[in-house]
Amino acid sequence: MKTGLLFIASLISLGSFAQKATKKADATSTLKLELGQAIKVTTESDMDMEMSMGMNMKNKTTAYNTFKVTAVTDDTYTLTSTLDRMVMSADAMGQDMKYDSDKKEDRESETGKAIGTKIGTPFTATIDRKTGSVKVDKKDIEEKDTENNPMASMMSAGQNETENIKSFFFVLPAGMKTGSTWQDSTMVDKMKTNTIYTLKSIDGNQATVGYTTLLSGTNQMEAQGMSFDVNMKSTTIGDIIYDVKTSLVKSRSAKADVSGTIDMGGQSMDITATATSTTDFK
């Protein structure tokens, strides 16, 4: 149960920060990548979550990813994305839980076995150089998210591979200037998001885009042989800083307020949470 709670907290945190790209029909990509180029990504997230019956939790997750360009054509970039390392810690109901994928004993623990092949195994994606649209090799994902690793599937639900790839670049819709706003709405399964963007400033080659994302809906998950529904509403406010010439993101930061319920085993627990996230790209 402790492992399940740790993953529930991590998924709620990751889900709160899920970003959807602007509609590519209104934008022309200026993304510039070189063959062999590697982008190192570090994401830190902290969350304080309160549940009914006094089940409170503090959770911190740090993820280290690498994107590497493996092929360049006139029309596309091909790259791999690898989750190199994950470090998690949580204080749940007075008990400390920790996991570091670099430690052998942690990889062999219940949590490590649940994560399975996610750590260190790359998946492949293609980016359209004109539109910035991303296509992920679904075969890679299907081979990793097996029935024997339900929590690996849960991680995919929390950190969608396509959105993961899109995180390191940003495509500005045509005709935007400082102060301009635009929005995008999506519905994936039973989760709906609506994001309003504002071009806050352009200073030389550096632009800052602010955004507010409203997310609501239900995710069905499974942990330790038990299925449960997470009914969630969240409001996330954040900033994206990127290079206007290359479209490469330098950093992302966000704060989310979350509320909802976890329905499991015929019981329902109310949850409220505050989460913060920072991501650096190098």
**H/E element sequence:** HEEEEHHEEHHHEEEEEE
Count of runs of 4 or more consecutive helical residues: 6
Q: Structural class of the secondary structure composition? A: alpha+beta
What is the residue-averaged pLDDT?
81
- Give the fraction of residues assigned to helices: 10-25%
Overall geometry comes to globular
How many whole angstroms does the radius of gyration measure?
Answer: 19 Å
Largest sheet data: 12 strands, antiparallel
Would you report the number of β strands?
A: 12
In whole angstroms, how far apart are the ends? 37 Å
Pick out the low-confidence regions: 19-25, 145-159
Which oligomeric form is depicted?
single chain
Percent in strands: over 45%
